[in-house]
Design a protein that fits this description.
By secondary structure, this protein is mainly β. The chain is about 5% helix and about 45% strand. The chain has one domain: Jelly Rolls (Sandwich), CATH 2.60.120. It contains 1 helix and 10 strands, in the order βββββββαβββ. Strands 1, 3, 6, 8 and 10 form a 5-stranded antiparallel sheet that branches. The protein has a 5-stranded antiparallel sheet with strand order 2-9-4-5-7. β4 and β5 form a beta hairpin. The longest helix is centred in the last third of the chain and has 4 residues. The two termini are about 15 Å apart.
Amino acid sequence: MQVKDLRGDHVFAIPVAGQATASTADEFVAMVAPFDMTITRVKWVPTTAVTANGTNYFTLTLRNRTTGAGTALPAQRSYAATNSVAFAAEDMTLSGTEAALNVAAGDVLTVEKLVTGTGLAMPDGTVQIFARGN
């Protein structure tokens, strides 16, 4: 039996460095997928509170850099409308496209800060990826 054969979700905790410069987009390597998997849930746990801004904000994304030349976004969290509380885990929005949730062994997943307007500072935190082996 291999790890991918175990029933239920596997959880991968990814520490994410913050980006204090509001207008700077950034990207961090999260993991190389150890086996074929389907992402079932993604959580974000910021170390400080974030106050949303409808004009100047950031969007935290989980991106598959291998599949579709980096266009697949399995999950994202925008700070255009909803605040975050420090150390409170919250669900990121999963893609409605099933193919975006499928990850092949060897695919590189990243966590990316995208900026809208003049942006918003992003705190350190942890992204938790929940996935089932295929």
